[in-house]
Amino acid sequence: MKKCNQYPSKILFDRFRELLAEYVGVDKENVYPFTGADSALRTIFSILAKPGDKVLYVEPTFSMVKIYITNMGLKSLPVQSIESGDWWYTPVEELLTKARNADIAIIIDPNNPTGSPIIGADKNVVKMLAESVSRYIVFDEVYYEFAGYTVVKYVDEIDNMLIVRSLSKAFCLAGFRLGYVVGDKEVIAKITSIHTSFDIPTPCLAAGIAALENREYMKKIVEEVVKVRELLYTELRKRGYKVFRSYTNFLLIKDKRDLEQILRKHSIYIKKVGEDLFRITVPPQHFVNMLLEILGESV
Predict the structure, then answer these.
(1) pTM over 0.90
(2) Is the pLDDT of residue 299 over 50?
(3) Residue 297: predicted pLDDT
(4) Domain 216-298 in CATH 3.90.1150.10
(5) How far apart are CA 55 and CA 75, in angstroms?
(6) Please, are residues 77 and 53 in contact by the beta-carbon 8 Å criterion?
(7) What percent of the chain has pLDDT over 70?
(8) Which CATH class is domain 10-213?
(9) 238/83 Cα distance (integer angstroms)
């Protein structure tokens, strides 16, 4: 911290980038750090999209996607995801059909806020989508560590594909705002041409390096979240709640009551993400009983 009166060190930046490349399994030139996944997505839209471009995405989606589309003068090409038992289902044929009219596709997989897989890294579908869009396909994989599948393995074969990831979720570094993009070297160079090694603050670089050098901690966190997520899912179902399965660190609940306001009275904050839909982040184990007690009283 004594050096925080100085600009961020390029040595630290390069070390962080090298560790990201090692973690992902690509060359250093195929990956680049950003101040959070949001910043990475915003940069991709700003540099690769042009006003009037058509953007394909699955609805419901991460709220920032539609904000970027609206504010950058782009056009929406949504494909509606459908409730299907314990999961949400995305009609892949419709996705492929609409991709032929899209300039850019943004696929959040697993999806936020449903928690369901969209493509699940199916190589044939990924390649067909990449061939159908006129320019780029972007996969948001910020929940990769919980889902266990990825399209990164196709980077060498698909040069118009980008992957956005984050250290906010599984690495528990949300406050440090650390994200990164993986893709073809030339595309990475294009979207980072206005960025420098000074963009990420020194404490954030230090935190990212420490996290990537000690990945066993992340693995323990993921194991704990998955265990508590399944417990919470089972207990909510027992209490009569309509809750969907998830490949992420949250669960989606469908309920007519205003669960957001009910829990807010107890200083527990969840997010309303649609009509009768509420996204609840998986809490630490010691909060589960309290949460279940409050929700149990609301049934």
Answers:
(1) yes
(2) no
(3) 67
(4) yes
(5) 6
(6) no
(7) 98
(8) alpha beta
(9) 20
